[in-house]
Amino acid sequence: MKQFSLKGFVLVLTLLLTACGGKNGQASHAVDVAVETTVGAAQIAPQYAEGFKVKYLNDGVRLVDIADPENESAQTYHFALVPRGTKPASVPSDYQVVETPVRHVICMTTLQLSNFIALDATSYVTGITSTRHLFNEKMNEQLKNGQTSKIGIEGNFDTEVIINANPDVIFISPFKRGGYDALTETGLPLVPHLGYKELTPLGQAEWVKFIGMFIGMEKEANELFDGIAHRYNALKEQTAKATERPVVLSGEIRGGNWYAVGGQSFLAQVFRDAGADYFLKDDTNSGGMNLDFETVYSKAANAQYWRIMNSFDGTYTYDALKRQPDVLLEDFVAVFHPEMASPEYKPTYYHLLK
Prior knowledge:
Elements: E1 2-7, E2 30-31, E3 52-57, E4 62-67, E5 76-83, E6 96-100, E7 105-107, H1 110-118, E8 125-128, H2 137-145, E9 149-150, E10 152-153, E11 156-157, H3 159-164, E12 169-172, H4 181-184, E13 190-192, H5 201-205, H6 207-215, H7 218-239, E14 247-250, E15 252-254, E16 257-261, H8 266-273, E17 277-278, E18 288-291, H9 293-300, E19 305-310, H10 318-321, H11 325-336, E20 350-352
Parallel strand pairs: 1-19, 5-6, 7-8, 7-12, 8-9, 12-13, 14-17, 14-19
Antiparallel strand pairs: 1-20, 2-3, 3-4, 4-5, 10-11, 15-16, 16-18
């Protein structure tokens, strides 16, 4: 069995810059998303992301509905993004108003922060949680000069620091561990960012458009994502021609059991798009699960590849990698189907162990 390792394991969560649920608001005001609003902003129309949808009203209001892409929670969230300084009468009563573009935000996860980094918009970020795996030069400089503050960790946030960061919104991950009671008390809008729950690489990546709406960078977000999607789909189309599909084992031992993600997970989708079969491809779960050794052995004894994770060697930076899922896919294609890799290819995240 060949083994390949992931360099910079934490970034697998962030490289996937990343519509269902919710109420539609007042249909009488709705306009087609292909038409420019009165504020002249580019339109956001998610194609792959299942966790948010947008409806445009005639007066520049955007109704944003957010729901769990995995349908594990029935909770939905509704926000009305309105031009700053206006009070449109068309906003439905069950939508929380957020004036845009926002000026300052707090990010709770690395994936959220990666969207701002990809858009070269870190100046909006005045608060973050952990800096353990933060290598972006601009963000580290902002922390050093006080432009961005560390607000603590989940369950132990520093409310005073949060208030001093003066955010217009706080992006949260409501289905994770939580600890948001202190944030609720601030009265600030808590906006769920559910990119991490998307089941496809392009779905997760498309949440960069979600961030673009809040900071007035819809055009830039659309262009960025279009480039990612074009490269990813081109690689996917190429691997569809592969006559052999190697089997890939992925997971790790935890407390005597094997922990792996299900066959409908994000990772399984990447393997499929790279021309390989995940060893649990027929499983219907999307999240992680514990398996006994016998189950893993019976399904993966003849796997040709084993995906393992280790810490990176050398200097690992956000700027160098750009967190694009097309790069991740190209790494997998080069591993599974080296004959399809370009002669100039050099691995970014994954490489075969010698």
